[in-house]
Each structure stands twice: as structure tokens, then as C-alpha cells.
Design a protein that fits this description.
heterodimer, A: 5-stranded mixed β-sheet, 4-stranded antiparallel β-sheet, 9 strands, B: 113 residues, mainly beta
Chain lengths: 114, 113
């Protein structure tokens, strides 16, 4: 499985934008970039995913580098409820069974400062 | 929609015992995956079930087994428990389709004494 590299921890002030980086230099052409987050005492929660183009949804934006070797999850206005561990995951969709195997790293622990 | 539900939420066992964890997938989902999350680590894939068969398996010993029922619910069984099996066990469900997102339950916290 292609690997991702993320900083262990980051801090951000409440109501400010947050940029969470992820490096994936060995990404293959069929790998989607997925982001999940895990709030305290909960299971991981899907945030966003993309293949080549930047993506936006109600939770966040995903900026993907042109060479696809890195990406950035953007929280436009962080709140205290965004404090969580954020995981960047590569998911190969060339699989007969949809490939539910996600390979999690240790993620980035995001702390929001009031 | 209840989402993914897991039971029990907490469990304490002793070494050598056997344990069964249960998962009900989100409505409309037909695949179930199980993950183990040790303290301070990311979740590790155990296996995936679809159409009542194990389809993919991670690097876990045969002590870890599972089952999927016709209603898509699933069980995870662990035999001969070791202290190192203490972890949060997460169940995830999705429809069997490429790039579909997974929905996770809140997990079962297993402590082996």
C-alpha cells in the first residue's frame, strides 16, 4: 500500500483557517486521496476525497498538487468541534470488491485554541 | 437512520478467553469491515465481509475470525485472547462500489487482563 506522511500534531486558533498537509510521493494513478477524522471516543468519520482536481464539500476543501505527490486538507474556519486526529489515506479503487481496506497511519492530532 | 451500531461498547476479558463482538451496518450497506485500533495508533484493517464471505484480510492471525449474516450484520470472534488484543475494535460499513466512503461505528473497547 502506498504510504502517506503527516505531521504528528498541529495547533490552530479558533475561527481561523487550518491547512493540514499530507505527502504521498509514491501515489499511483489509481489511488484516490481520502481524509478521515476521528473525534475523541468515536470512530473515524469521512471528511472528503479526491483524485486529481481540488474538491469542496460542507466540511472542508481538498487541494491536490498537480503532480499528486502531496495534498492539503483545508478547514476554512476551525471550531472547537474540529479538534480531532486527521488521517490522510490512499485508497486504490482497482479492486473486485470495492477495496474497503483503508491503511491508516498515525495521523495529525489537531488542537484548536479558544 | 441509526448508522453503524456496535455492541457491547465495553468488554473486559481475561487471557485465554474467547470474545464475540457484534456490528449492524448502516441501512442500505452490504459490506462490513473490521478494524483494530491500539492506543495512540491508527486503525488496522482486520478483514472485510461481503455476501457472507470473507473477501479481504489484513495481517491478523487465525485467532481472529468473523461472520456475516443474511441481514448484513456481522460478528468478530477472537479466540485465545492475549494481553495485546486489548484495543478498540471498529466496524465500518459501505455499499460495494468503488470509491465509496466508509461509515464507522463508535467501536467496542476490549480490555484483556
Amino acid at each position: 500500500d502506498a504510504k502517506t506522511t503527516q505531521p504528528n500534531s498541529m495547533e490552530s486558533n479558533e475561527e481561523e483557517p487550518v491547512h493540514l498537509p499530507c505527502n504521498h510521493s509514491t501515489i499511483s494513478g489509481t489511488d484516490y486521496i481520502h481524509w478521515y477524522r476521528q473525534l475523541p471516543s468515536q470512530g473515524p468519520e469521512y471528511v472528503i476525497h479526491g483524485l486529481t482536481s481540488n474538491v469542496n464539500n460542507r466540511m472542508a476543501s481538498l487541494a491536490i498538487a498537480e503532480d499528486r505527490k502531496s495534498s492539503t486538507l483545508i478547514l476554512h474556519r476551525a471550531t472547537l468541534r474540529d479538534a480531532a486526529v486527521y488521517y490522510c489515506i490512499l485508497r486504490d479503487v482497482e479492486s473486485n470488491f470495492g477495496n474497503e481496506k483503508l491503511t491508516f497511519g498515525t495521523g495529525t492530532r489537531l488542537t484548536i485554541i479558544p | 437512520d441509526a448508522g453503524v451500531t456496535q455492541s457491547p461498547t465495553h468488554l473486559i476479558k481475561t487471557r485465554g478467553q474467547q470474545v464475540t463482538l457484534r456490528c449492524s451496518p448502516k441501512s442500505g450497506h452490504d459490506t462490513v469491515s473490521w478494524y483494530q485500533q491500539a492506543l495512540g495508533q491508527g486503525p488496522q484493517f482486520i478483514f472485510q465481509y461481503y455476501e457472507e464471505e470473507e473477501r479481504q484480510r489484513g495481517n491478523f492471525p487465525d485467532r481472529f475470525s468473523g461472520h456475516q449474516f443474511p441481514n448484513y450484520s456481522s460478528e468478530l470472534n477472537v479466540n485465545a485472547l492475549l494481553l495485546g488484543d486489548s484495543a478498540l475494535y471498529l466496524c465500518a460499513s459501505s455499499p460495494i462500489r468503488e470509491d465509496e466512503k466508509l461509515f464507522f461505528g463508535s467501536g467496542t473497547q476490549l480490555s484483556v487482563l
